[in-house]
Amino acid sequence: MRFVDEFRDADKAMALSAQIAALCEPGRHYKFMEVCGGHTHTIYKHGLEDYLPDTVQLVHGPGCPVCVIPMGRVDDAIAIAEEPGVIMTSFGDMMRVPGGRGSFFDSNAAGADIRMVYSPLDALKVAQANPDKKVVFMAIGFETTAPSTAMTMLRAEALGLTNFSIFCNHVTIIPAIKAILDSPDLRLDGFIGPGHVSTVIGCRPYEFIAAEHGKPLVCAGFEPLDILQSVYMLMLQLKEGRCEVENQYSRVVPWDGNLKALKVINQTMALRPYFEWRGLGFISHSALAVNEQYAAFDAERIFNVPGVRVADPKACQCGEVLKGVLKPWECKVFGTACTPETPIGTCMVSSEGACAAYYNFGRFTRERVKEATRTVDIELSPARP
Amino acid sequence: MCLGIPGEIIEILTDRPDLAKVDVCGVKRAINIGLLEDEELSAGDWVLIHVGFAMSKIDEREAKAALEFLEGIGQAYAEELAALSESNIT
Question: What ipTM did this prediction achieve?
Answer without folding.
Answer: 0.94
